[in-house]
Write a structure and sequence with these properties.
single chain; alpha/beta; Hypothetical Protein Aq_1857, Chain: A; 3-stranded mixed beta sheet; globular
């Protein structure tokens, strides 16, 4: 397992800055929720604040807020933003993932 840091590509950082310019906030919130055929899905949004149980990392001048529950599952992840044709989405390179569902919506950690 890594040191826990969550890193951002420049494309992800630019997209987060766009959202923050419209919505405010302190950075990106990364969490997980139970769902799908593989068990977990990423839950991301703009962080309005960091709570006492949150872990806060910084990359490219932005804060990344991760819940204590999600940290073991997302530790070491790189967040990217992809704009490919009509698809515009955050993508995650997560070293903890041991399997993904066929549709790409959920993942398993081992």
């Amino acid at each position: 397992m890594s040191d826990g840091n969550i890193s951002l590509t420049e494309a992800a950082a630019d997209r987060i800055r766009e959202f923050m310019a419209r919505e405010g906030g302190i950075g990106l919130r990364v969490d997980v929720r139970r769902t799908g055929c593989s068990g977990w899905a990423y839950d991301v949004g703009i962080a309005k604040a960091a709570g006492a149980d949150d872990n806060v990392f910084e990359d490219r001048g932005l804060k990344v807020v991760v819940s204590e529950k999600a940290l073991p599952m997302v530790s070491g992840t790189t967040v990217d933003f992809v704009h490919d044709g009509l698809v515009r989405e955050f993508r995650f390179r997560n070293p903890n993932v041991t399997g993904e569902c066929g549709c790409g919506e959920s993942f398993t950690v081992g």
